[in-house]
Design a protein that fits this description.
The protein has 239 residues and is of the alpha/beta class. It is 20% helix and 20% strand. It contains six helices and 14 strands. The longest helix has 11 residues.
Length: 239
C-alpha cells in the first residue's frame, strides 16, 4: 500500500469515508471552552449518523479542558486530531491537574491526521516545498509560516487541508485550505465548517479567557468574515 505520509505518520493517521455519514462537520480549536462548544453543537444539531471532526487543541487555556475531553470522548462519532497543546501535555511540558491518566491516554490515542480522498484534517500545516511523506508528526502539528508567508497561501495540493493552530480574525477559506482556529479562547468565535453545505457556523464565547495582543492576530487575505453571507462560503453567526 502506498501511504500519503511516511510510515511513522501513517501509523498515526485515520482514514474516513464522508459518504458513510449523513453530514460531516469540522470544528476549530476549542481550547477548553466546553460551554461554547455545546452552544455550537446546538446550532449544528449533529445526530449519531453525522461525523464531527476537530482540528486539535481541545485542551488548555480555557476553563474546562476536562469537560471538552469528556464530551468528545463520549461520542463515538466525534474524533479529533492531536494538536500541539495535546502534545505539550503528553511530553510533560505543560500540566493540567484536571486531567487524569485516562484522559492523557485518550489524547495520546488521537491521530495526527485524518484523511479521505479529497481532504486532510491536521492541526498545523504543510510545507508546500516538501512532499507530504517528508513531514513529521511535529511538522503537521506546528507548521504555520514558511519562507516569507503562511503555508496556506502557497499550498496547491490536490487534497483540501482543514487546519487550526494559528489564531485567525476570520476563517481562511480557499479551494486548497480552510483554516478554522478563530480564537474562541481569546474572545473571538468558535467556528465549524459544514462540509456538504459548504458553509461556516460560528458562536461567540461567553467571555474572553485569555488576552491576545492585536498584532498576534492573523487577518487572512480573502478571508470570509463571520456573518458575511455574501461570500462563496456563507458564514452564519449564531447568538
Amino acid at each position: 500500500m502506498t501511504h500519503l505520509f511516511s510510515e511513522t505518520v501513517a501509523a498515526q493517521t485515520k482514514q474516513i469515508d464522508p459518504a458513510a455519514w449523513d453530514q460531516l462537520y469540522i470544528i476549530g480549536d476549542v481550547h477548553g471552552c466546553r460551554s461554547t462548544l455545546e452552544r455550537l453543537l446546538t446550532e449544528l444539531g449533529p445526530t449519531s449518523e453525522d461525523l464531527v471532526l476537530f482540528v486539535g487543541d481541545l485542551v488548555r487555556k480555557g476553563p474546562d479542558s476536562a469537560g471538552v475531553v469528556d464530551l468528545v470522548r463520549s461520542r463515538p462519532n466525534f474524533l479529533s486530531v492531536r494538536g500541539n497543546n495535546e502534545e505539550k501535555l503528553l511530553r510533560g511540558e505543560k500540566d493540567l491537574a484536571t486531567l487524569d491518566d485516562d484522559d492523557l491516554e485518550y489524547l495520546a490515542s488521537l491521530p495526527v491526521a485524518i484523511t479521505w480522498d479529497e481532504g486532510i484534517v491536521i492541526h498545523g500545516g504543510i510545507d508546500p516545498s516538501r512532499p507530504l511523506a517528508a513531514h513529521s508528526a511535529t511538522d503537521l502539528q506546528n507548521i504555520a509560516e514558511v519562507n516569507d508567508g503562511f503555508w496556506w497561501e502557497s499550498y496547491t495540493g490536490s487534497r483540501r487541508v482543514f487546519f487550526g493552530h494559528k489564531p485567525l480574525a476570520d476563517p481562511v477559506v480557499g479551494s486548497h485550505a480552510l483554516g478554522l482556529d478563530t480564537g474562541c479562547v481569546y474572545g473571538n468565535v468558535l467556528t465549524a465548517y459544514e462540509y456538504a453545505a459548504d458553509r461556516l457556523i460560528s458562536v461567540a464565547p461567553e467571555q474572553t479567557y485569555e488576552n491576545r495582543a492585536e498584532h498576534k492576530w492573523v487577518h487572512p487575505t480573502g478571508a470570509t468574515p463571520v456573518g458575511d453571507s455574501s461570500q462563496s462560503t456563507p458564514a452564519v453567526f449564531a447568538d
